[in-house]
Amino acid sequence: MLLSPYPTAGERIRITLLWIWCGLVILFLLVPILIPVPLSFNSGAFFIFPLEGISTRWYEVVLGTQRWQSAIGNSLIVAFGTTFIATVLGTLTAIALSDEKFPGRRIVMPLLLSPLIVPVVITAVGSYLFYARIGLASTYAGIILAHTALASPFVVVTVAASLTGFDRNLMRAAAISGAKPLTAFFRVMLPLILPGVLSGAAFAFVTSFDEVVVVQFLASASQRTMPLEMFIGLREKLSPAITAAATLMMALSILLLLVANILSRRGRKAPV
Amino acid sequence: MSALQPSDLDRPALARGRSAAADTDLKSVSAALRRAEFGDRLRSLALAAPLLVLLALSFGIPIVLLLSRAVYDPTIAEALPKTTAALADWNGQGQPGDAALAALAADLSDNQAKGTAYELAKSINARLPGARSQVLKTVRKLENAGGQPPLDIMKSVPFWTAPGTWPAIASGTHRLTSFYLLSALDLRWNADGGIERVPPEQAIFLQVFMRTFFVAAAVTLATLLLGFPLAYLISSVPKGLAAILIVAVLLPFWTSILVRTAAWTVLLQKFGLVNDLLLWLGVGSDRLDLMYSRMGLIIAMTHIQLPFTLLPIYSVMRTIQPSQMKAAYSLGARPFTAFRRVYLPQVFPGVMAGCLLTFILCLGYYITPALIGGASDQLISNFIANYVNVELNWEMAAALSFILLVFTLALFGIFARILGFDRLKLV
Question: Using the beta-carbon criterion (under 8 Å), do B262 and A36 form an inter-chain contact?
Answer without folding.
Answer: yes
